[in-house]
Amino acid sequence: MRDRRPQTAERIQGERMLAIDFGPDGVVVIAGRLDAAQSPSAQAFLDRVEGTVTLDCSRLEYVSSAGLGVLLKTQKRLLATAGRLRLSGVNRHLQDIFIYSGFDQIFEIEPAR
Amino acid sequence: MNAPTDQRQLSARDMKAILGVTRALAAPFDLMTMLNEVVNAAKQVLDADRGSVWLYDAAADELVLEVATGIRPVRVPAGVGLVGACARKRQIINVPDCYADPRFDPGVDRSSGYRTRCMLTLPLVDHKDVLVGVMQVLNKSGGVFDVDDEVLAAALAAQCAVALQRVRMTEALLEGERMRQELEMARVVQMSTLPAVMPSLPGYDLFGTFRPAELTGGDTFDLAMQDQGLLVVLGDATGHGIAPALSVTQMQAMLRIAFRLGADLETAFMQVNNQLADTLPSDRFITAFIGLLDPSTHRMRFHSGGQGPILHFQAASGTCAHYKPTSFPLGAMRLSSLRPALTLEMHPGDILLVLSDGIYEYQDPAADEFGQQRVEEVVRAHHRKPVAELSTILLESVHAFGRGAPQGDDMTVVLVKRKAAATVHRTFRRRIDSIQEIFEFTAATFAREHVDARLLPSVDLTVEELFTNMVKYSPSSSAEVRIDMTRIEGGVEVTLTDYDVEPFDVTRSPDVDVNLPIELRKPGGLGLHLIRRLVDSVAYEYSTENRQSRITFRMTDAGPPAADGGADTGGANARD
To answer: In CATH, what number is assigned to the domain containing residue A30?
Structure first.
């Protein structure tokens, strides 16, 4: 799966930036760091998605409370229209953060293999 | 006979003769030469055939006639014979016919074959009225000594007394100087047994110094790398001066050899103790700290024979632990067994302070002692400085405390400090966009200080949450935010300092309920909630003086304390 979105991964390689875009099979690929400075651009992107959306987090290195806010706001909006946000490829560190914040109870989380 | 010397005037000729003698006596002669000069001067001025000078030995209350170098001098008790009577009464005695005077001892003439006719005996009293000796001149050429001779002799005697006294004092000074030079040599030898250069041990800062109360002293110290580890020694023998200096120097040398021969701490301590017990005088002993530091485990094992307190400054808490001796002083009695050694762990920034009691017991003019508490205050205030500087500050503090009171005892300082990791810091503009630079700073610091990279996301998250809080809640401040990072055991300590702000203790903000249904969930407060679950500890300080907020957190691979458990799901305990 990783090799099917090389352009996204390469764009953030070695950078402490965030990239978010649609992958080839309709998933939303997020890569880099979802911190307070990058959250507005992630929010702007996710505000446009509809329905049931899988967010591929396998290249997401980092998320802070600002990033959690983006995910929470998106989930609330999608749930209101019978959609939802699924998180896939979640690494160990992100899993901890999602669990500590109770997000495991409001998101479907698929850990990284 | 007892001439009123001041009632007669000296003639011009006499004056000239005396001035000539005075000039001659001003030369820097040794004592024997000066005695000869004085006798010759007297013979010449008084036109006498022979003369002699007896020196007064105040300690023995005797008069001593130096006959010649190498021959035992003749001694006469003050008060005996003409010489003794003159010394006692401090008056000129003019005897025109010696064999008619009962005080005259003809035995001297009999043994020498000389015939004493007449004799003038006069006291030599210096300008400070100190009796220097007695001068005798014999056999006036062509007659007897008259009253004019007495006046002249009195004037001459005063000059001779001062000249002789000067020579005697000079010789005493020279003798003192010889003693001082020998002590100085002893001092050089003693000092040469101390480490001239402190051993270099990576990660440690070492310093020792010895300030004897006299030229030599009864303290010693050692800091030396041995196969067994870093050897740390402080010894303090009873008393100060040359005798205890010999004892401690002996102990220090024996210890070095014991460790060089591969002895462990216990063996070295016991064997050196037993050797000292066998050889030291029974009223002498040595209090001593003997420790071995393993630089790989940072553990210091030590025995202390009567040496204490031993202070261990602990950087993490900023306090001093103190240890008592493990045994009685070395050399006090033989040992057949020993209590287990004590072990202390040197953490980054920790300092071991072994100080002789000359520091703790330094007295001010009111006889108050410097004491352990003042030592601890100095260490707390200056522990971040290099230990050589800390030692200087400590000794200066002791002297300042003494307010001019003399140093009563030897003072020795031995300091072993495990270096604190270097703290790196940077300041960041107060805006959200700065977090990119902050992450570059944290990543670079992790790489340079070799901090476990797995901790980086949690450290970044904590820093980001605290930093964004500062940006959001104190937007009016234009000051930059400072971040300090220090490597600690298994992780890192980070401090964020926010200047010119109102106090706001984020660590006290209420926790969020992460188990609410999604419709009731709000993003706010999550940052602090997460921090509490990630850090080992977090502390907030505010300084009203410079309106400064400081938040310090520690994060290590040991993880947060069990109560907040790393495995805590948040859901389990937040509701109950």
So the answer is: 3.30.750.24
